[in-house]
Amino acid sequence: xxxxxxxxxxxxxFGGVTALADVDLTIAAGEVHCLAGENGSGKSTLIKIxxxxxxxxxxxxxxxxxxxxxxxxxxxxxxxxxxVIYQDLALFPDLTVAENIGFAQHLSGLHGARWAxxxxxxxxxxxxxxVQLDPAARLGDLSIAQRQLVxxxxxxAADARLVIMDEPTASLTRTEVDTLLGxxxxxxxxxxxxxxxxxxxxxxxxxxxxxxxxxxxxKLGTWDAQEMTPARLGTLxxxxxFDYKIAVPDLAAAPVVLSVSNLSRTGDFEDVSLEIRxxxxxxxxxxxxxxxxxxALSLFGMRPAESGEIxxxxxPVLLRSNRAAIDExxxxxxxDRLSLGLVLEQPIASNIILSTLDRLTxxxxxxxxxxxxxxxxxxxxxxxxKVSDPENAVRTLSGGNQQRxxxxxxxxxxxxxxxxxxxxxxxxxxAKDGIYAIVKSLAAAGMAVLMISDEIPEVLYHSHxxxxxxxxxxxxxxxxxxxxxxxxREAIDA
Length: 494
Fold this sequence. Notes:
CATH architecture of the largest domain: 3-Layer(aba) Sandwich
CATH class of the largest domain: Alpha Beta
Shape: globular
Structural class: alpha/beta
Strand order of the largest sheet: 6-7-8-3-9-10
Oligomer: single chain
Mean pLDDT: 89
């Protein structure tokens, strides 16, 4: 098929910093293309240039649908059929599905007969894509996966010819990813090009036809996706090899730190029994609705269990609030760090000490600057958080460093049990490797870790035991040395 977009010699400098250097990129009509690279590789800058948000430096050339573009703006990019679906989706939670899908086409007065036209637009796009969405539903009541479908429908309503998806699978379960990949195939069938920007390499390679890799603002090359593997792609992106091997220490003599017996909560999970020993990383995997996060919230006291027993170091405990859980030595890193783990506009330092304010006060109940500075400095050094100034807003950090701040916040409480819910969502491969190293070092020091994930390689290569959860019950237990990735996937999907 002919190329929809051709970019050549694209460079972009911000002061003395080179964001892009002489990058070429072609995307064919109806092609599914993966744009890969670490955080800071230039992906976001390239997307902003394609969408007209940032102009390239002089000397580069952009040709869209055969026409050279001399001054690409956001409105002109949209007119040409380019739509970007960012990780935060940029939707309106208090509006309906129909309003979110059609508002851009009906901005000239949303009243009277225009509402009918808006609903008609939304219903037509939903039917065209073949998805199940209620046009009258309030967007804020939908799941992340459903909101993503709304964002795709909005792009189609704007007559998209190229849809760029930034981290589309970051917050989705495997079942939801399969749905998204199916929709991507439908977009391709209709001649709409799709560019995926994602850190979940195995899923992107399932659907992409070509892969372009950026590193340090330069293009390393473009490859046929069928010739690429996640391991090779990771090496190209980072310059390092990631060869994870299963290594399970003998923990039979280690004391049981957390013991759960017959724990139940109506509608969430039933008759759950498990134990985690000191130094053990217990992997918990399951599909959306399996009850894994609900179990974590009960262990952290946020949604108390209705029956059953929880013991810490052999002692029964009642966890009726998250404060009670923290006091007992349980810490919880949420799967949604942006909404629940961090206060994005607050400084990095403030986020790190958020859970230990009562321990850092001095005379008169005021925060001790000396204690606060010592605590912040300690955790920045211990977890290798890359930060120029701890007083900068935490939103200025990369996803991997943001996640380290969340972990630091909870490690500062000196927990005995650390619950990690999807600990590497939305972080690049190098940052993932750093987080895995942190988790393993915590376990080696004797901490009990419950790692919840829906990424099979994550639990297989970084857990000591694996539990599979399904429909609120623990279905099976596996030793990583005795199961393969494909067999584990079958066990989850069965």
